[in-house]
Amino acid sequence: MAINVQTIQGEWNQLCALAKQRWGQLTEDDLRVQEGNVEQLVGRIQQKTGEGREAIERFFSEMTSRGSSAVANAADGAGRYAQQVGDRIRERYDSAEGLVRHHPTQTVAAAFGIGLVAGLIIGLTIRHR
Fold first, then answer.
1. Could you tell me which CATH number the domain at 5-102 has?
2. CB 48 within 8 A of CB 25
3. Which among 27, 109, 113, 129 is least surrounded, fewest beta carbons within 10 Å?
4. Over the stretch 9-56, which tens digit does the pLDDT of each residue have?
């Protein structure tokens, strides 16, 4: 079983922590010396634990696929949430647009009144400085 070296290097710190949990005899120095080199790490784990290369590679493959699925699930959830937010914004925009279309005079009067009040507040603030 071949392991995806690029995936493992992208998740190096997390995988080292998992390797240390799985193989307690690994030291920080063992992991630091192999920094980023998957082949050397697998060799070091074999040397320290006597475990077979296939079992070690299977462990790393399983861990990286779990991480990839978690990232994919999070991305899907974020995408669905963004879609829901976008739909709500579109609904509110359509509602406001319909209100303006059905009551144009009142809308213009309200906008004028808000602009007048804002202008007065700004004018008074500047005058008092």
1. 1.10.1470.10
2. yes
3. 129
4. 566 777 778 888 888 888 888 777 666 677 888 888 888 888 898 888
